[in-house]
Design a protein that fits this description.
Layout (H helix, E strand, L loop, with lengths): L7 H10 L6 E2 L6 H6 L12 E3 L4 H13 L4 E4 L17 E4 L6 E3 L5 E5 L4 H10 L3 E2 L10 H4 L9 H4 L6 E7 L5 E5 L4 H10 L5 E8 L1 E2 L4 E9 L7 H11 L8 E8 L2 E8 L3 H7 L9 E7 L1 H12 L9 E9 L7 H13 L7 E7 L21 E9 L5 H16 L19 H6 L3 H11 L19
Helix pairs in contact: 1-3, 7-14, 11-12
């Protein structure tokens, strides 16, 4: 393991590990950055004070107590896909609690409630639910994302318009709090903490286990894909306007999820309809989707999950790279105007992009997500119907031209908007001026008050997490 440092924190962490291998590592450990820290965004350097790999909730409790006693901040890491490396603290000196060992899983065949550890990745959750009764939950498309962060920040995916977000499936958790207590939280037990964990979890505790309601897998699924190559992005304007009209429709069938994926050579529009082809045709959606090189596949649930994973691989997926990311969220009243769409496409054509590897993704939301009151969970974007995320990837390093290009996309859209646009913390944007207000909107004051009760010393901290009311400024 290399040289083990001697300090009150190191001694405390080693005591919790009690001689176990692969339990804790420090900056002096060989291959510390590669094997233990494992940054997702290689453009953001961060060195944790230590990385731990607990095996039990009691281990997590011990590590949190060590950090609190030594005035060290703590962040949990599940899949580690934070765009700003917030699962590693987001800045130097944090204690990382890597949950990879939390792999327990069970399902009650009477209630179909599933209980599983926070170390699972999305593909593992999907597979285990399928193997245990052909059950399912709503979640995103990237298979390597960890459920621990996904289900405590939102968790959006193609099924979200039909079933709600991933966190809307959570009905209970086991969580380690800032004083090291291991508690349960639900609608009836520690309900204030449960409210905060469902949308702002990184600032309130470390969830070690989830209890989720599950649903029967859909039967037939229609997977739609349209792709086209353009000489100039300005030619995409009419295509995007047509797609945006579709997703802004308040009567859009909730069984339909869709994404507009713009890249260097053109666009891919994907759609997933959870039903039969006859039902899909009856919605009228096929007549409203932009036409071009079309591929329609009618398949089952697991095949479509695999297809989504393949599409996710076209963007950032699970590969560590140097990249920049910006994002925005839209209500219906924030629909991008034709003039702004034209400005955006012209900007993309004329800008020095600094890379050939960039994407601008718009995806539809709303539907069942909007059925839940805004103040029912920390997740505040119940009124949104569309998100966008811009990414620029450096090969091998990221340059300022690419950062400016992606920021210019966001600025062009914002400059054409009548209101200040916010965004979702799952699409973390480290360039935000007022991140807490942007991420949690009308729920931020309630969250600050809850933070003051459960974590007054701000033990669970990253650069954009919720602060206690007393130090909110």
């Amino acid at each position: 393991m290399g040289q083990t440092p001697s300090s009150p924190l190191a001694d405390c962490l080693n005591a919790v590990c009690n001689g176990r291998d692969n339990c804790v590592a420090f900056p002096g450990t060989p291959l510390y950055q590669i094997s233990w820290v494992d940054r997702y965004n290689l453009d953001i350097e961060v060195e944790p004070i230590a990385v731990t790999r607990p095996e039990t909730a009691e281990d997590v409790s011990g590590f949190v107590k060590c950090a609190a006693a030594n005035n060290v901040k703590v962040q949990a890491k599940s899949g580690g896909h934070s765009y700003a490396n917030y699962g590693l603290g987001g800045e130097d000196g944090a204690l990382v609690v890597d949950l990879r060992n939390f792999q327990h899983f069970s399902i009650d065949p009477n209630t179909w409630q599933a209980t599983f550890g926070a170390g699972h990745k999305l593909d593992e959750v999907t597979e285990k639910l399928h193997e245990n009764g052909k059950r399912a939950i709503s979640h995103g498309t990237c298979p390597g994302v960890g459920i621990g962060g996904h289900a405590t920040i939102g968790g959006l995916g193609p099924e979200s318009r039909m079933w709600g977000s991933c966190l809307d499936h959570v009905i209970g958790v086991e969580v380690v709090t800032a004083d090291g207590s291991i508690v349960h939280a639900s609608e009836t037990e520690n309900s204030d903490l449960f409210f905060a964990l469902k949308g702002a979890g990184a600032g309130f505790g470390i969830v070690t286990s989830f209890v989720m309601k599950t649903r029967p897998e859909p039967g037939r699924v229609v997977q739609y894909s349209y792709s086209v190559t353009f000489a100039k992005h300005e030619d995409l304007g009419p295509v995007f306007r047509q797609w945006q009209e579709l997703v802004m429709d308040p009567d859009l069938d909730r069984r339909f999820g869709t994404e507009f994926y713009m890249h260097e050579l053109g666009v891919i529009i994907s759609g997933t309809f959870y039903g039969t082809d006859e039902e899909f045709q009856a919605t009228g959606i096929p007549d409203r989707i932009p036409k071009g090189k079309i591929s329609v596949v009618i398949d089952d649930w697991m095949a479509v999950i695999t297809k989504h994973a393949e599409e996710a691989a076209l963007s950032l997926s699970s590969i560590s790279t140097a990249f920049t990311a910006r994002s925005l969220a839209f209500r219906r009243e924030d629909k991008i105007s034709p003039e702004t769409i034209t400005s955006l496409m012209n900007y993309i054509d004329d800008a020095d992009r600094g890379t050939l590897v960039w994407v601008l993704i718009f995806d539809a939301t709303g539907g069942a997500i909007s059925d839940v009151p805004t103040n029912a969970t920390a997740y505040s974007h119940r009124d949104k119907v569309m998100f966008c995320q811009g990414y620029g990837v450096g090969i091998p390093t990221l340059n300022q031209h690419t950062k400016d290009f992606v920021s210019g996309i966001v600025n062009t859209i914002q400059n054409g908007a009548a209101n200040t646009l916010t965004t979702y913390p799952g699409y973390v944007d480290p360039a935000l001026t007022n991140p807490q207000e942007s991420y949690w909107g009308p729920n931020i004051n309630a969250l600050r008050a809850i933070k003051s009760q459960w974590d007054p010393n701000d033990i669970f901290h990253n650069p954009q997490s919720v602060r206690p009311a007393a130090v909110a400024a």
